[in-house]
User: What shape does this take?
Amino acid sequence: MVRTKPLVLLFVWCSVAAAQQGPVSSGEAAKLQRQIQAGRARNVILFVGDGMGDSEITAARNYWAGAAGRLAMDSLPFTGTVTTYALREDDPSQPDYVTDSAAGGTAWATGQKTSNGRISSTAKTDKSLKTILELAQQMGYRTGNITTAEITDATPAVLGAHVNSRRCQGPEDMKDCPKYKKNAGGPGSIAEQLVDHKIDVLMGGGRQRYEQIVDGGPGEGKNTLAWAESQGYKVITTAQDLSEVQLQPGQGLLGLFNAGNMSMEWSGDPAIPYPGSGPQKCKQFMRPASEPALFAMMRKAIRLLETTDTKPQGFFLQVEGAQIDKRAHTAEPCEQIGETIAFDNAILFALEYAAGHPDTLIIVTADHGHSTQIVPEPKTDAHGTGLMSTLTTADKANMTLHYGTNSVCCSSSHSMEHTGTQVRIAAQGPQAFGVLGVHDMSEIFHLMARAIGAE
Ligand SMILES: [Zn+2]
Assistant: This one.
């Protein structure tokens, strides 16, 4: 994106000019033209739908809005495509065609590709890579990082931690990262590094990681929650806390609403072998009242991060819909779609915010595709060989989803696999037109860096 900026601008202008004579109405073309903004963004909100490939988006849209309906994420004016592959750890000159969230996240967070499992560090050589959140802090932006997974999971981790393995989430989880331990003189686990990076707002699950004991440095012997408090964080654990919280100037917020990943929004029957589960309607409103919705975390994050001063820097905020991925891994279509719709609700709120704050860059993308396929309804003489479930959609029609990327599923050691497909990116606001075309995921870093005035 950064290298093709004049071309992209020309392309956009030509497209709009062509659209005026083509099937797009002149009103729509004028609307598009108004959306072409260069310059700097006061705020950047990056939405990462984990594992939200085109099939996962389409399944959620069909179920929730109907085949001809639209989700909030479908309404952003500029759409493009990003390639997602990782690099091989043993030979980083070679692609690893199927990425995980750690390598995918490292690409969008740092502009550099790496091998699977690494958190913002280089393949093989294990060097730390500067992240867009670190850059935003340097440029004077306030920063936030929120997720429905553990806050120490790969996607939120890549913004504020550097470590050779995504598994090193708490100070007692450091088996794969011995030299990173604080008692070895290292920066510590992901839980510690996120706090030590002084990110203004951190919210999600993962309380268990913060109940572990810091093993070196000035916080030695404290649990990580107490260490966070000593570093200026207010710690909260319930939706009630979130609605009431107020911060002192300079205070950070650490919201940990579940010991592990946050609870599901919806539930239903999992996919099973032929003839599959269903036809079923999903059960909604399953999330316990003690845990906030993703959009509620996001609304509060924006309120806490907004400043009233007149400087151009506002905030950088990452919002992850984490469990679209996790429930595709376990072939649970209702849970997966419920998480996609919850993610879309957060996007809807961001779009409403941006209507009053047009200097906000909003980007919606995924880090990789997943296993969900929309297939014909299974028949006795011919059907898929994986797990399937038929859902009754908003169209009052049957939609069969098929999960077939692993022969063994679903347990903690064997689950449905990611896929190596390209994924959608959509954007609006300053620099948003840069998503047009086909790019690599690492270019998202450069687009955001341009938007905050760092490139
Ligand atoms: Zn995954």
